[in-house]
Amino acid sequence: MEMMLVVFAFMLVIMAMMAIGVIVAKKPITGSCGGMSAIGMETACDVCGGDKTKCDTEIKKAKQSDPSDLAYDATGNNK
Questions:
Q1: Which InterPro entries has this protein been placed in (predicted)?
Q2: 4 falls in which pLDDT band (50, 70, 90)?
Q3: Cα–Cα distance measured from residue 79 to residue 70, given in angstroms and rounded to the nearest whole number
Q4: How confident is the model at residue 5, as a pLDDT?
Q5: pLDDT tens profile 10-57
Q6: What is the pLDDT of residue 33?
Q7: Which of 11, 24, 26, 48 is the most buried (most CB within 10 A)?
Q8: What is the pLDDT at residue 57?
């Protein structure tokens, strides 16, 4: 039982350190649509739908938009 508590405490410390790192970096957590193709798996990303340039264009639009607008419609129905 002691070992389980030690492992649980260790995992909590690691998670806290990761959270602090994200807070200190002041950058949102981002993903990559090209990540699967980098390992040889050509699959369509749920966000970009296979268009590898969409992530770059969305990042550029986000930098130009109002910082208070934090929502993003990833459904593709944003007309």
A1: NqrM
A2: very high
A3: 18
A4: 96
A5: 999 999 998 898 888 877 666 655 555 566 655 666 666 667 677 777
A6: 59
A7: 48
A8: 78
Q: Is 78 left (phi over 0), alpha (psi -120 to 50) or beta?
A: beta
Q: Which two tokens stand for residue 48?
A: 């970009």
Q: Are 58 and 69 in contact (CB under 8 A)?
A: no
Token pair 């508590």: residue: 5
From the list 70, 57, 66, the residue with the least C-alpha distance to 47 is: 57
* DSSP category for residue 75: T
Say if residues 55 and 47 touch (Cβ distance below 8 Å). Answer: yes
Nearest Cα to 78, choosing from 53, 47, 52, 56?
A: 47
